[in-house]
Structures are given as structure tokens and as C-alpha cells.
Amino acid sequence: TDPVSPPRLGCGSMGGLLALPPGQGPHQVGCTDVMVGHTRQGLLLRLFYPCQPRAGATEPLWIPRSEYCGGLADATLGRRWCSALLSIAIGSCKVPVSWNEPLKPRSPGYPLIIFSFRTLYSSICTELASRGFVVAALEHRDHSAATTYFCTAEAGTEEWLPFQRVPQGQKEFYFRNKQVHQRAQECVRALRLFQGIAGGRAVPNILHQDWDLSVLKDNLDLTKVAVMGHSFGGVTAVLALVKEPSFRCAVALDAWMFPLENLLYPEVPKPVLFINTEKFQTPESVAKMKRLSSRNGQTRIVTVLGTVHEDQTDFAFLPGKLFSRIFGRRGTLDPHKALAITSRAALAFLQRHLELQEEFGQWDELVEGVGDSVVPEAPLGRSRL
Questions:
Q1: pLDDT number for residue 385
Q2: pTM higher than 0.85, yes or no?
Q3: CA 60, CA 177: separation in Å to the nearest integer?
Q4: Range of 112's domain?
């Protein structure tokens, strides 16, 4: 594989505390937020897409609302009182993409990725969009998000859904299994949304963004659709393959396999690329991945050496001391290189299974676990950090 080049600079730094890299692909990336429906059965997602470059475009906030800081402080740190500090630290950080800029038209249309989670994966979603994908990053309403909300029909009143821990006395598997089924169903509903738009259905965006969803009608190729996510989102992507035949493959980043019932493993019909970090997986989790790979010869499991679980999130781009204070030990692999390896392996896998006419095959070795910092399967207990 070609060496990982340093990130382009000057395309949108997010201030001192969190500097997400801009996409390295040929397309400028645009971004908008979409909410449809007036109940919790509706959808809230952030759309990343190739856009027409324009001088003076604004950049969206990484954390879209201050309410999310309270939820993040509670969910990540277990300390809601840190909310104000978190808001000061990251509340003004921005994503290096162009907010609400026009979609760059493309015939026969862009392939679509439904990504399980909206805000904490901006770097990977931006990278994929810069390579020619439309990426819909979903905010789940199963109480696993730091917080989320929907707008009721009555004068646009907001109803917030807080993060919820496993209730005392309840077995974690049953609680998480119910959540993962809801999440996978939300991924399917997101795909239905885009199928409806492609079919000419008018879909009003409750958030009243200055961006018309109907522009997607002739610019999506819905024969080329994948599902993707990290951790809980990784197992969500695997389950979505069971629920929806239109998903042709899944990319699962350091998937947390615990919530999926054993009966469903033989039912996963399509290939999965598992991209693991070095320190998160357990023998039980990897055994579940291997069950899938034994049933589907196209499924692959690779591990990126020198990485920890959070390296596949935007938090990887926090300064080292702050990262270590929140999450403990960080990986030894530079986060820009880790992102490049992860995204390139995903792109090569997507090229194979969505039959794309791109140059992503140059990174095929990564899918097979060949390269400087990637190995096949999972070297459990290996200490490279």
C-alpha cells in the first residue's frame, strides 16, 4: 500500500482542543442535518456528501446542541457536573466540511452508506464522503445515545430522550439485545427514507435546513448500499444485514458483539469487514466474528496494531493528555494514520462488494490484513502499545 501522507492543512481546524482532519479524497464534503417524522419512530441523521466547492462556506458545530454536552459528560465520564467544562472545551469545535452547500450532481448516482451514529464519527464519515459516497450518520433513539430528541407536531415542541444505563436487576444481554434490534430497524428505516426520495416522494425536513432533500432523487445509486458502525454500531451493522436484503455488505469497526443472540449468526447473509483495534476485543467476541467468516468466505477480520477502541472515533484527535485523562491509555499509532488505514480498508472492501468503478482496489492488501500496522484476525492479548 502507498505510504500514508500527512493530512492537508488549512481546510478547517477546529480550534486547539479537537482538530478533525479534512477528507483526503477528491471531493469537497458538504453536510446537513435531517429530521423526519414527529415521533420517536422518525429519524434524525447527519448527511455527509460530495458538494460543489464555494468560497465562504461555513462549518457546522461538532456538537450540534449544548444539551449533548450534558449527555456526553454523563455517558462518557459518568459525571454530569462536567457538562459546563465540556461545553467550554469542545462546544465551539467545528467539523471541516461545508454546511448546507449544494450537492455535486453525479450520474449514475453516489453509493450510499448508512452509518450507525451521528456525531462522534465525523472524521470517518467525512473521509468516505470525500471519496464519493453519500453517508447518512444516524442518531439512534434507543437510549444508547448520550442524548437525542424529536420534535412533536405541537408547535415544534422538543422531547429529549436521555442516555440510559442498564436498569438494576435486569440482565444486560436482554436490555442490549432489545436496543440493537431497534438500532438495526432504524438503519432499515433510514434506507427506506432514501428509497422514497429516489422514488420521487417529497420528504419535509423538520429542521428547516436550507437544503432540499429532493436533490438526492437522481444522485443516489441505491443498488450500491452498505451499512457501517463502530462498537455498538458495529454489531448494529451486522444485524442490519439480517433485516434488510438491500444492504450488500457491512463494515463493523471494533464491533461489540455481545448483544447479538447466537441464533442469528447463521442468518447473516452478506459479507462483513471487521476492523478491530488491538485492545478491545475478547476471545468470545472474536469467536463470534469467526463464526460469520466460516459461513461467508468474503467476510474478513483484521486488527490495526497500536490502536485502542476510541481511536476509531473523533476523540482520537483530542490532545494526548486530555485523551488519556478521559479514556486512559491511548494507542501508539498516529491517529491520522489509523484513520487512513481504517478508511482505506473499508473503501477496498466496499469496492469489492458494491462493484464500484474506483481505484480503491489499490488498498486490497489491508482487507487481507497485510500492511505496516494491520494483521489478519485478532492477536488477543498482544501488547504493542
A1: 30
A2: yes
A3: 33
A4: 29-60+95-376
